[in-house]
């Protein structure tokens, strides 16, 4: 389960929160959930949509698991298509055993005359590891690539989607990896 909330506080500035259930995640100290708390600033500059954010990942019920990260993004709209580039950096912190940089590129196109959108994404995670066991929280197999494609349906406030995701993670201790097919649905208020 996932829930999100965004509260605009000034032009382009919002306070954001998201919560996701984890069900006793060994990877995150047995936490049953993660709460992401942050602030985002977004601005339209010509044809570019630019954003910057600061975020803290809190793991209720688990000791010394929380960590912060900074992010930036740039996107461009070309007719029914959008292209986005983003970077997220978690500075050196004991909870993640070093630092982590995640770079990603994505593209999406609305299928004309339908409520469907097709999108694709590729990303790369890398960084230094001061403590290999803790660093495995963000990079279970060291530096890795991930990718995925999605088909989403949006009608009014309802949405549903199907996503294929995979990564290059394949080490012996990497649980919950490999190709997956994820279905999602929800209501936007």
Write the layout of secondary structure elements.
Elements: E1 2-10, E2 13-25, E3 31-45, E4 48-58, E5 67-78, E6 81-93, E7 98-110, E8 116-126, H1 132-135, E9 144-155, E10 158-167, E11 180-187
Antiparallel strand pairs: 1-2, 2-3, 3-4, 4-5, 5-6, 6-7, 7-8, 8-9, 9-10, 10-11
Describe the fold and architecture.
By secondary structure, the protein is mainly beta. It is globular. The mean pLDDT is 90. The longest helix has 4 residues, at 132-135. It is 2% helix and 67% strand. The chain has one helix spanning 132-135, and strands at residues 2-10, 13-25, 31-45, 48-58, 67-78, 81-93, 98-110, 116-126, 144-155, 158-167, 180-187.
**Overall 3D form:** globular
Q: What name goes with the CATH superfamily?
A: Porin
CATH class: Mainly Beta
The radius of gyration is 17 Å
CATH architecture: Beta Barrel
Query: Which sheet architecture does the biggest sheet show?
Result: 11 strands, antiparallel
CATH topology: Porin
The poorly predicted ranges are: none
How many helices in DSSP terms?
1
- Strand elements, count: 11
**Strands of the biggest beta sheet: in what spatial order?**
1-2-3-4-5-6-7-8-9-10-11
| pLDDT averaged over residues | 90
Order of SSEs, N→C? EEEEEEEEHEEE
Helix content: under 10%
Beta-strand residue fraction: over 45%
């Amino acid at each position: 389960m996932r829930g999100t909330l965004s509260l605009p506080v000034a032009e382009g500035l919002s306070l954001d929160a998201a919560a996701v259930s984890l069900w006793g995640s060994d990877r995150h100290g047995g936490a049953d959930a993660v709460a992401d708390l942050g602030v985002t600033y977004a601005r339209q500059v010509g044809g570019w949509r630019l954003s910057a954010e600061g975020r803290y990942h809190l793991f209720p019920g688990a000791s010394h698991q929380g960590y912060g990260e900074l992010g930036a993004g740039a996107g461009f709209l070309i007719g029914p298509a959008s292209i986005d580039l983003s970077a997220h950096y978690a500075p050196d912190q004991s909870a993640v055993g070093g630092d982590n940089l995640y770079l990603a590129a994505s593209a999406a196109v609305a299928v004309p005359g339908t409520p469907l959108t097709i999108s694709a994404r590729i990303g790369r995670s890398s960084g230094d590891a001061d403590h290999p066991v803790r660093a495995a929280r963000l990079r279970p197999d060291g530096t890795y690539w991930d990718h995925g494609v999605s088909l989403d349906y949006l009608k009014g406030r309802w949405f549903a989607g199907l996503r294929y995701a995979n990564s290059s993670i394949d080490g012996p201790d990497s649980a919950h990896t490999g190709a997956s097919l994820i279905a999602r649905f929800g209501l936007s208020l």
